[in-house]
Structure formats: C-alpha cells, structure tokens
C-alpha cells in the first residue's frame, strides 16, 4: 500500500511500516488492510495539498498513533476556511474512520476529485439539485464555473421557442397584438441575459 513504503514504527498490534501521519486508522490499530487503506492515505495527501498542513496537531508518537487510530483529525474547514464544501466532503469521505464509509477504490476517489474540478457536485456531497445546478453554472469560484457556450446557446434557443409557442397560444386566446408583444419580449430578454452570462463567464475566466 501507499503508506507502507517509508520508515517504520511500532504499535500495540505490531510493527507499522510507513509514516505515521499517512497510515490509516486500521493500520495504526494493527488490523488487516485493503485498498481502502490507500484511499485514506491519499485523503491525507489531498488534505495537506489543500490546507498546507497535517490533519493532526503536533504531538508525541504514542499520542499521534492514538489519534490516527480514531481518525481524530482537524476538520479541513478549520485548517483551511477557504476550502470549498465540495472538497471538504471528498476529503472527509476519503478519511472516514471506518473503511466501509470511504471510497471503495482509489479510482472512485480520483473520479470525485475530477468532478469537483469540473465544477460539479461529487458523490461524497449530498447536495440538492438546485445547489448542484448553482455550482455548475454560476459557481463563486471562477475556475470552477462551467457556463459553456453550447449550454447558453441551447438554453437561448429552447427558451425562445417556448416563448414563441406561448405567444401563439395567447394569440389564439386573447386575440389582438398581445401575443406579438410576448414574443418580442422573449426575443429581447433571452439574448440579453445570455450576453450577460457570457460576459460573466469571460470575466471569471480572466480572473482565474
């Protein structure tokens, strides 16, 4: 495993091969290991890349091993308040105390990290549909904003067609020129909104 290639130390259940800060709780307790132990180690590495510090406070080796065995870590948000909730959810799942609560494989962890980098909601974060849509389309972080031109064009075309259909239906119902005004309003409002979103996307990309 990833945590068994460095210097070793000794725990109650036998020798620990690896750097104590990076071993999994089950390894610190001398229990059997599997792929999910590597997931925990990668979670620690991801934590340190984000927070620029260890998830464990400075302490002596016996205390450290006790904390590792209980997954008693400093929450990512406390160590790095600027870290997004989505990244925090990924790290928290990767570093869960029980192996069954972690990602089954390293590949599953990598997939969720890629999803976060693409501005979408990872499997680890149980967010509602509205929250997921907001993160994808108008995320606060410009580097994760994914207002793609094709999305905007499709939205504009479908909304304009819908407005035209509503206008035609109103024309048959109320008569006169009201339906023309409805269609004209849609034709003006939708492209204007799309242009604003494109400018937001462009300015976000320039700031990234």
List the helices and strands and how they pair.
Layout lengths: L7 E4 L2 E4 L7 H4 L6 H17 L9 H9 L6 H4 L5 H10 L11 H12 L11 H10 L10 H26 L3 H30 L1
Antiparallel strand pairs: 1-2
Describe it for me?
The chain folds into two domains: 2-140, Transferase(Phosphotransferase) domain 1 (Transferase(Phosphotransferase), domain 1, Orthogonal Bundle), CATH 1.10.510.10; 149-207, no CATH class. The chain has helices at 25-28, 35-51, 61-69, 76-79, 85-94, 106-117, 129-138, 149-174, 178-207; strands at residues 8-11, 14-17. With 208 residues, the chain is mainly α. The protein is built from nine helices and two strands; from the N terminus they run E-E-H-H-H-H-H-H-H-H-H. A two-stranded antiparallel sheet has the order 1-2. Strand 1 (8-11) and strand 2 form a beta hairpin.
Quick structural overview:
The protein has 208 residues and is mainly α.
What are the key terms here?
mainly alpha; 59% helix; 208 residues; Transferase(Phosphotransferase), domain 1; 9 helices; two-stranded antiparallel ribbon; elongated; 2 domains; single chain
Order of helices and strands: EEHHHHHHHHH
Q: Whole-number average pLDDT?
A: 71
The computed structural class is mainly alpha
Rg, please? 25 Å
CATH topology of the largest domain: Transferase(Phosphotransferase), domain 1
CATH homologous superfamily title of the largest domain? Transferase(Phosphotransferase) domain 1
Helical amount: 55-70%
End-to-end distance: 36 Å
Which second-level CATH architecture of the largest domain applies?
Answer: Orthogonal Bundle
Helix tally equals 9
For the record, the count of structural domains works out to 2
Q: List unreliable stretches of 5+ residues.
A: 3-17, 140-152
> Tell me, what is the CATH class of the largest domain?
Mainly Alpha
Count the beta strands: 2
Amount of beta strand? under 5%
């Amino acid at each position: 495993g990833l945590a068994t290639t460095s210097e070793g130390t000794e725990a109650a259940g036998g020798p620990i091969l690896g750097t104590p800060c990076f071993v999994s709780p089950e390894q610190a307790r001398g229990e059997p290991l599997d792929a999910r132990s590597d997931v925990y180690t990668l979670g620690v590495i991801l934590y340190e890349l984000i927070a620029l510090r260890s998830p464990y406070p400075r302490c002596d080796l016996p205390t450290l091993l006790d904390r590792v065995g209980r997954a008693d870590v400093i929450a990512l948000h406390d160590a790095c308040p600027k870290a997004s909730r989505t990244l925090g959810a990924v790290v928290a799942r990767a570093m869960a105390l029980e192996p069954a609560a972690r990602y089954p494989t390293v590949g599953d962890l990598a997939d969720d990290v890629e999803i976060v980098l693409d501005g979408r909601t990872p499997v680890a974060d149980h967010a509602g549909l509205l929250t997921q849509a907001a993160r994808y389309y108008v995320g606060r972080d410009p580097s994760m904003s994914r207002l793609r031109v094709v999305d905007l064009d499709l939205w504009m075309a479908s909304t304009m067609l819908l407005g035209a259909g509503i206008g035609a239906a109103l024309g048959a119902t109320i008569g006169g020129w009201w339906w023309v005004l409805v269609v004209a309003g849609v034709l003006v409002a939708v492209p204007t909104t799309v242009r604003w979103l494109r400018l937001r996307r462009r300015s976000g990309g320039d700031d990234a």
